[in-house]
Structure formats: structure tokens, C-alpha cells
Amino acid sequence: MLAGKMNLEIELKAPCKNSRAKIEKIGAKYLKKEIQEDVYFMHPCRDFKQTDEAFRIRKSDKLYLTYKGPKHPGDLKTREELEFEVTEKIFPLLERLGFKKAFTIKKERHIYELDGLTICCDQVEGIGEYVEIESKNQENADKIHDIASKLGVLANSTTKSYSELLGF
After folding, report:
1. I want to staple 86 with a disulfide (CB 3.0 to 4.6 A). Which of 19, 68, 90, 159 is the partner?
2. In the chain, how many domains are there?
């Protein structure tokens, strides 16, 4: 493990029709819209699908290199997440290190904030509309469940990633 505090991503994801209207109805503050393209990479020496890890570059208003560790057990998707802003120069570096592009996921994301949580309404190419409720703090698990309940998505939630839902 890297020195210092582990960075966690704690989230609940669920399919949801008309999620923007539902999110606004519970009082979430609209922050912005992003068009995101996530380019996932294969490691030259290990299978991320088998190790339940992910390594990607997210293209939105900026570029972010993200590593996601294996999921922790539980009803919320909890995993280590390391993220760094990068430039286009990262692509030839990754290629020289043996990483290969595996697949790309495209989505339109509307981002909201409520009670210290991030709520996203995603239109994901190939699988449709999903809502994500996310925190970086494990102490917010009850808040995540509460908001999911208010949105009517708790029963249909999943710990699968978009890449798993798309069959990658």
C-alpha cells in the first residue's frame, strides 16, 4: 500500500428512469454536465478482470488517470481509488510500459450535490440511465442508503461497475 491514508470511493449505483427529476425533487443542487469518455487499459502482466481492478483515463474537461482497487465486500461498492490529473503525454508513456487500450465507455453525466454526497445521473452508451450516489467517506454509508431510498432505487442497486454491466 502507498504511504498515507487510503483514498476510498464508496458508491451505490442503480438503473433509474427520470433520475434528474427525482434528484432535483429531493433538493440536490445541480453542479454541472460533463461528457465523459473512459478509456480502460489492460496491464501487461496481470488480468485486471481477475484481480477486480481497473485502470483508466477519463476524458472530460480535463484528463484524469485513475486506478481502482478490488471491491470490498458489502452492499455498497467500496474500493481504493487513486486519481491524478494528466496530459495527453500519458498515452505514449502507457504504451511504452506495455499497457494496451481494452475498451471505452462513454456517458453524459449530470452532477449534483446533496448533504456532502455527489449524486450523478448518467446516460451510459449501451446500458441506459443510471444514478450513482458517492462519497469518499465510509461514515456516509447511511446517508447513501437514505438518498437511494428517497430516489426509489435502493432495491435495484448493484455493486457492479459500468464495465461489468457492459460485459467487458
Report:
1. 90
2. 1
How much is the pTM?
Answer: 0.91
Residues in the chain, how many? 168
The answer as to whether 28 is a domain residue is yes
Active site residue 40: yes
Q: Which of 40, 112, 130, 162 is catalytic?
A: 40
Distance CA 15, CA 34 (A): 19
> 57: closest CA among 93, 97, 90?
90
Written as nine digits, the cell of 10 is 464508496
Residue 28: Cβ within 10 Å count: 22
Domain range for residue 31? 8-165
- Find the helix or strand (DSSP H, E) in which 117 lies: strand 117-124
Distances (CA, A) of 97 to 10, 44, 45, 79, 91: 30, 8, 11, 25, 10
pLDDT in tens, 65-108: 999 999 999 999 999 999 999 999 999 999 999 999 999 999 99
